[in-house]
TrEMBL record:
<keyword id="KW-1133">Transmembrane helix</keyword>
<dbReference type="GO" id="GO:0016746">
    <property type="term" value="F:acyltransferase activity"/>
</dbReference>
<protein>
    <submittedName>
        <fullName>Lecithin:cholesterol acyltransferase</fullName>
    </submittedName>
</protein>
<feature type="transmembrane region" description="Helical">
    <location>
        <begin position="12"/>
        <end position="31"/>
    </location>
</feature>
<keyword id="KW-0812">Transmembrane</keyword>
<dbReference type="InterPro" id="IPR029058">
    <property type="entry name" value="AB_hydrolase_fold"/>
</dbReference>
<keyword id="KW-0808">Transferase</keyword>
<keyword id="KW-0012">Acyltransferase</keyword>
<keyword id="KW-0472">Membrane</keyword>
<dbReference type="Pfam" id="PF12697">
    <property type="entry name" value="Abhydrolase_6"/>
</dbReference>
<feature type="domain" description="AB hydrolase-1">
    <location>
        <begin position="85"/>
        <end position="254"/>
    </location>
</feature>
<dbReference type="InterPro" id="IPR000073">
    <property type="entry name" value="AB_hydrolase_1"/>
</dbReference>
């Protein structure tokens, strides 16, 4: 019996390791859910300490972050000079979100730049990085900022805190902001931010060879502060939504609806009154079912951002397209039709350009 006990003790000890890890994760999750401000401060502290202890490993990849010219146009004087376009991606974006939009903008004659940033860090830090790079943009013409998902929050934070703050002078010099287009931006937050770890895996597994991979690859972009900023009711969103949007900067919102009633369902709803006779009961049932379906679609939104989260004070109602969060502006397969948000973006730009 003693021999058997000695033989099985190492195995018992090994079983305790995953149990201890699961317990630690459960305790951390429980604590973090109830203390988001403290969790954010802790994540920022960890990020800063890693920067200080491992500066080379934590340094941004050369040429990846910052302002990147994608399409440059030299005016020849034959047409009015069009505003410059600056694209700002969202959380844990591997870099291909703009691949369908950029060629269309180039064909329409627009000069296109892209802002890339460590997208797991706090949204305010990414905004500050944009402000630091803003003077690098040529100031010979105004800029239209287009943001997808969290990129729209960075744009709003930049405009209201740096370039066009209410009641005070601009805190950064450079090109004027001609307009803003937000695509699938969670202005009131998104519960999907809690699944940031899976987005992080997609970001680094899908990244091209120009991005250096290492054990620090995930930490280099931040330690998950953005996840906390994106949660509904976060301190960042409360502060952002309390700031007035400047009347001098036009803004448009575009959102996605993942669901729409199939033709068979529409036909069934229309047939209910006839099936139930001439009483008032039939139309009530049809209206109730139709309302239930509509509320389901509004709550689901584009699968990541509910329709109610698109709105914020001072912005017009969103333009809605039937597409997923990424599918609004990016094809899943090359054979897919043009994403539905792209024609709306071009139409808005043409309107603002006076063409």
């Amino acid at each position: 019996m003693n021999v058997k006990s000695v033989r099985f003790r190492p195995r018992s000890a090994l079983l305790l390791i995953p149990i201890a890890l699961l317990f630690a994760v459960a305790v951390w999750t429980w604590w973090a859910e109830g203390h988001p401000r403290e969790e954010r401060r802790l994540r920022v502290l960890v990020h800063d300490r890693l920067d200080a202890w491992f500066p080379q490993a934590m340094a941004p990849v050369d040429g990846w972050h910052g302002l990147i010219p994608r399409i440059q146009v030299v005016p020849d004087g034959s047409e009015p000079v069009l505003p410059r376009i600056l694209l700002v991606h969202g959380l844990d974006e591997p870099g291909d979100i703009w691949d369908d939009l950029i060629p269309v903008l180039g064909s329409a004659g627009f000069e296109v730049w892209e802002f890339r940033y460590p997208n797991d860090q706090g949204v305010d830090r990414s905004t500050d990085l944009l402000a630091a790079h803003w003077p690098e943009l040529p100031s010979d013409r105004p800029v239209v900022l287009i943001g997808h998902s969290m990129g729209g929050l960075i744009i709003r934070d930049f405009v209201t805190r740096w370039r066009n703050p209410a009641g005070i002078s601009a805190r950064v010099e450079g090109a004027a902001v001609h307009g803003v287009i937000l695509v699938g931006t969670p202005n009131q937050g998104s519960e999907w931010a809690r699944l940031r770890i899976w987005l992080e895996l997609r970001d680094h597994l899908a990244a091209g060879p120009e991005r250096r991979f290492s054990l620090f690859a995930g930490l280099r972009d931040g330690t998950g502060e953005a996840k906390i900023d994106l949660r509904p009711g976060s301190a960042f969103l409360e502060d952002l939504n309390a700031r007035p949007w400047p009347e001098s900067v036009p803004i448009r919102l575009i959102g996605g609806l993942l669901t729409e009633p199939p033709e068979s369902m529409v036909a069934s709803l229309e047939a209910i009154p006839a099936e139930l006779g001439s009483s008032d009961f039939g139309p009530d049932v049809a209206a109730t079912l139709e309302g239930w379906w509509s509320s389901l679609g509004e709550g689901l939104g584009d699968g990541v951002v509910p329709l109610a989260s698109l709105r914020f004070p001072g912005a017009p109602p969103p333009i809605l397209v039937h597409a997923s969060h990424r599918g609004m502006i990016a094809r899943l397969f090359p054979s897919d039709p043009e994403p539905e948000a792209i024609p709306h973006i071009v139409a808005i730009l043409e309107e603002w350009s006076g063409r």
